[in-house]
């Protein structure tokens, strides 16, 4: 099943469970807060551990791909040459930024707007996203970097086929030619 659909189903299920939790009881609310904080500590700790493992492995295998173009730009994507280590670190960094943003939003919703249900829902969603994270699957769960986990990672679309960077030789050669002609000008 598609990850986007799984997230939607988990979110809807968590909302139904959250409706039955008595958030008016201060003791229950403190347990939910503690659960949310514990989930975020697990998530951040796991991402930092993945970064540590990537740096420790120091895989210097060259990775070439043509980045996906911006939908708002008429320019085709540019050629990217990096190492597996740097690519995995950048992907893990994106995951960390997403976790930080989620914590900031949750802080705003809970502290300023006094919403309590999202604490429970976001704790579950964060743990599910941690399990779905491709660097976590490769470096902690020990899955091989093949299929959906082949670098560069393709972003799953809600409507079917995954979209992402192109790695075929013809596209890379075309992008290298474009880079070569730009340097000559």
Summarize the topology.
Layout: H1 3-19, H2 26-57, E1 62-66, E2 79-83, H3 84-112, H4 117-132, H5 134-139, E3 155-157, E4 160-163, H6 169-184
Antiparallel strand pairs: 1-2, 3-4
Helix pairs in contact: 1-4, 2-3, 2-4, 3-4
InterPro entries: SND3_fun (IPR012098)
GO biological process, one term: protein targeting to ER
GO cellular component, one term: endoplasmic reticulum
Structure description:
The chain is mainly α and 185 residues long. The chain has one domain. Helices cover 63% and strands 9% of the residues. The strands form 2 sheets. Strands 1-2 form a two-stranded antiparallel ribbon. It has a two-stranded antiparallel sheet with strand order 3-4.
Number of beta-strand segments: 4
H/E series, N to C?
HHEEHHHEEH
How would you state the average pLDDT, rounded?
Answer: 87
- Rounded radius of gyration (Å): 20 Å
Overall domain count: 1
Report the helical percentage.
55-70%
Which structural class do you get from the secondary structure elements? mainly alpha
Please summarize the sheet with the most strands. Answer: 2 strands, antiparallel
**Strand-residue proportion:** 5-15%
Low-confidence stretches: none
Q: State the strand order across the main sheet.
A: 1-2
Coarse shape: elongated
How far apart are the termini? 48 Å
* DSSP helical segment count: 6
Keywords: Membrane, Transmembrane, Transmembrane helix
Organism: Paxillus involutus ATCC 200175
Transmembrane segments: 30-50, 95-113
InterPro entries: SND3_fun (IPR012098)
């Amino acid at each position: 099943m598609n990850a986007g659909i799984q997230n939607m189903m988990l979110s809807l299920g968590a909302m139904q469970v959250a409706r039955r939790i008595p958030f008016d009881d201060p003791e229950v609310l403190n347990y939910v807060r503690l659960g949310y904080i514990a989930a975020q500590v697990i998530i951040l700790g796991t991402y930092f551990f993945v970064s540590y493992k990537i740096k420790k492995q120091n895989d210097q295998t060259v990775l070439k791909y043509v980045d996906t173009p911006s939908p708002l730009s008429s320019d085709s994507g540019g050629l990217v040459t990096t190492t597996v280590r740097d690519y995995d670190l950048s992907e893990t960094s994106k995951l960390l930024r997403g976790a930080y943003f989620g914590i900031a939003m949750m802080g705003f919703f809970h502290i300023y707007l006094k919403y309590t249900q999202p604490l429970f829902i976001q704790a579950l969603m964060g743990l599910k996203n941690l399990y779905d994270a491709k660097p976590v699957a490769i470096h902690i769960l020990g899955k091989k970097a093949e299929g959906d986990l082949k670098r560069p990672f393709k972003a799953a679309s809600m409507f079917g086929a995954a979209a992402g960077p192109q790695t075929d030789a013809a596209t890379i050669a075309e992008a290298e030619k474009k880079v070569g002609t730009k340097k000559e000008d």
